[in-house]
Design goal:
By secondary structure, the protein is of the alpha/beta class. Helices cover 20% and strands 24% of the residues. The protein has a 3-stranded mixed sheet, covered by helices on one side. The longest helix has 16 residues. The chain is globular, with a radius of gyration of 17 Å. The two termini are 13 Å apart. The chain binds glycine (GLY). The site of glycine (GLY) has 10 residues, from loops.
Length: 258
């Protein structure tokens, strides 16, 4: 099934070594290695039947390679978010030109103060959007998102987060009613109706896989998740994201897919 035609990515900047992290014990990212991993990410996506827009690095924002957070793109509209991390908030001004290539001004919506929202907290399942209420996405941001989606005939539900940074840190939809769940998401009633693969604790990072047109991209180095996704019948490709993991980032955060 082909669902996505376009992908937007942003090259990592040298300042990424000062990006936000909850895991300083993993060390600082190696910038040259991160660039090679990003090259690999782009070439892997290009095998999934999508056109790729590559935005230049932006040294003002250490976390700006994680383009999923300042925008949310749906089949009907694009929503520029209001990132809750102060050092990332300005990224919303830098993603809009890329979004304008695909949406007219009257289909570009905005989350505004006092609402905050980051795209990593939003998981699309057809026309329904699960939204994590997190340290980055607040109740008012979710209220605004719900109102915007309703205008276009789409729905939204809130998932309170307990431990993880973003919703998609621990749960990702692989289409066909299939879902990868780790940690606090294993038992959440919100996801009861899906066919879930429960990820073992030691591979929790690999909950963040992405489905792109019937190929699933899995982070390199997580054999149980790799086998599980293969056994679901998908074509599977892997990309090493070790340098992005050091900044709490993963496969989904590195692109907008639509
Ligand atoms: N380092 C990615 C983020 O915290 O948003």
């Amino acid at each position: 099934m082909k669902k996505f035609n376009h992908v937007i990515v942003r090259r990592p900047c040298r300042a990424m070594i000062d990006g936000i992290t909850s895991a300083p014990e993993l060390g600082k990212p190696d910038y040259e290695k991160a660039l090679r991993q990003h090259d690999d990410y782009i070439s892997t996506l290009s095998r999934c039947g999508v056109d790729i827009i590559i935005l230049p690095p932006d040294e003002r924002y250490p976390d700006s390679c994680f383009v999923e957070d300042p925008a949310l793109i749906t089949r009907e509209c694009a929503i520029i978010t209001n990132p809750g991390a102060p050092s990332r908030n300005g990224e919303k001004y830098e993603i809009i030109d890329a979004v304008r290539k695909f949406f007219p001004e009257d289909r570009i919506e905005h989350i505004v103060e006092p609402g905050t929202l980051e795209g990593g907290d939003v998981m699309m399942v057809d026309d329904h959007f699960y939204v994590g209420r997190s340290a980055r996405t607040n109740a008012e941001g979710i209220r605004q998102l719900t109102e915007i989606l309703a205008k276009y005939g789409m729905t939204c539900s809130e998932v309170p987060l307990e431990k993880v940074l973003h919703l998609k840190t621990g749960v990702n939809y692989l289409e066909n009613n299939k879902m990868l769940v780790a940690g606090e998401f294993v038992t959440k009633p919100d996801f009861e109706k899906y066919e879930k693969f429960e990820i073992p604790e030691d591979e929790a990072y690999a909950a963040n896989c992405i489905w792109v047109n019937d190929t699933v991209i899995v982070p390199e180095g997580y054999p149980h998740v790799l086998e599980a996704v293969k056994s679901m019948g998908y074509t599977v490709l892997t990309v090493d994201t070790s340098e992005y993991r050091k900044l709490d980032g993963g496969l989904s955060c590195l692109s907008l897919r639509f």
